[in-house]
Amino acid sequence: MNQDIQDDNILYHVKLNRKMLAGADTAVLPGDPGRVEKTARMIDPDAVFLVSNREYTSWLAELGGKKVLVCSTGIGGPSVSICIEELASLGVKNYFRIGTTGAIQDRINAADLVITTASVRLDGASTHYAPLEYPAVADFDLTTHLVQAAENLKIPFHKGITASSDTFYPGQERYDTFSGYVPRKFQGSLKEWQKLNVLNYEMESATLLTLASVFGLKAAMVASVIAIRGRDETPDDSILPLAEERLASCIREALSLLLTGEGYS
Length: 265
Ligand code: URA
Hints:
The chain has seven helices and ten strands. By secondary structure, the chain is an alpha/beta fold. It is globular, with a radius of gyration of 18 Å. It starts with 17 loop residues before the first helix and ends in a 5-residue tail after the last helix. About 50% of the residues are buried. Uracil binds next to β5, β9 and β10.
């Protein structure tokens, strides 16, 4: 695969080609395919469905006269890496991941937003692209738009470092599991990340941020808190509607700042 692919060349996993993207060079990436339509319609009530294959569901929206792709990545680094490889080949340059997260600092509340400035690389996929010494760092400009968006909308937010793990259970030190066992490597890791001022756990940003930097592209990450790890290992689904609404309005505002230079609201 290369960057000189033909306009009608459909890429293998995302099942998209350049024609379908209609010039979109910005993508919003939820993990969950079920969140794509809602997010796209929040950005643009006239957004259109493009295609769905495996975990990759795509809709095309328009904001300020510019096309924006909304494409789900599925869960975890490997599926994110496929998504970024293929979208990059189709000309997408700016990536905003929106997701859910577990907070590990006591000052963070349910449904607050966490804007990632950099990620601890607890994934495997990013190591296939760059050695662990290479930082998983968010793009400054896109991240500034996310921060400005949260401020404009008066949504409580925190910005800082995220621990991005390949696994939801042992890598995030959960014991309420089938075996109940967490390998030694991860025992005590939650406390350690807390002490090192890491804000939260999620599962995709390490791969996304590393690949974007390696490719010379831009990526940023915002997540809404659905688990308070000091209190409970299990996410609280009753928070999801508010969490999703805050994410969607934050991303619409950030896109508006990026694409039109002005806020949406
Ligand atoms: N996503 C995660 O990866 N961890 C959580 O605790 C919640 C959402």
